[in-house]
Amino acid sequence: MQIEDNESQPNTKNTKLNDLEKSEGSANTGLSENVFEAREEHEEKLLEDTDTNDEQGNVIHENTEANDKQETISGIQDQIMGKLNEIEARQVTLEKEFQSKIKYDQHKETIIDNLHRELQAYKDDFKKQMLKPVILDIIQTIDSLNKMVKHYSSQNNSNIDPEKLLGVLEDVPSDLEDILYRQGVEPYQCEDDHFHPERQRILKTKVTDSESLDKSIAERARKGYEWEGKILRQEMVEVYKFKS
Q: Disulfide-capable partner of 137 in 54, 90, 179, 202 (CB 3.0 to 4.6 Å)?
């Protein structure tokens, strides 16, 4: 019996050792599992923290970009508002200048109209002053002619002297020439018998077979008149025209 007991003791010890090893193995296994789980949880937490940090970084980056865009938009808006204010100020200045220009133009037009009226009145008065002595001379000539007509009308035809009447009629053109002379108008006739186209005008041509008479004066029809050296009317003449 002792022998069996002794023999069984080593087996019991072995069994205990095995159980102890199994327990240690189980403990080690449990510990490893706990460590692994803890590690996984830590890694997951790190991953979550990393994702959170990335998300926060993205949010911060997006916020930064949004702020930069907002600042850029604000700067552009400020520039636009500055330009609009500048344009508005220029518009106000131009409007003031335009109104001032309108007032100046209206004042200038008023002055020009007044000057035009004064000038026109001066011209009208000047014409009247220039024509007044001529008109008075013509009135005087008309009075003389009426007086002469009345005188000869009261006489019998037998008592009228033709030569005297002719002399009176010849005085009429002379009296009118005197009126013109007082206004600076003088009659003229070219002295030679050659035709001068700048001072004479042909009323009629007469055919001649004498070549020496070609373009010479055949007859003087009317006098020419010039006013202060300028021709008012050319002398009217008849001119010979040579024809063989």
A: 179
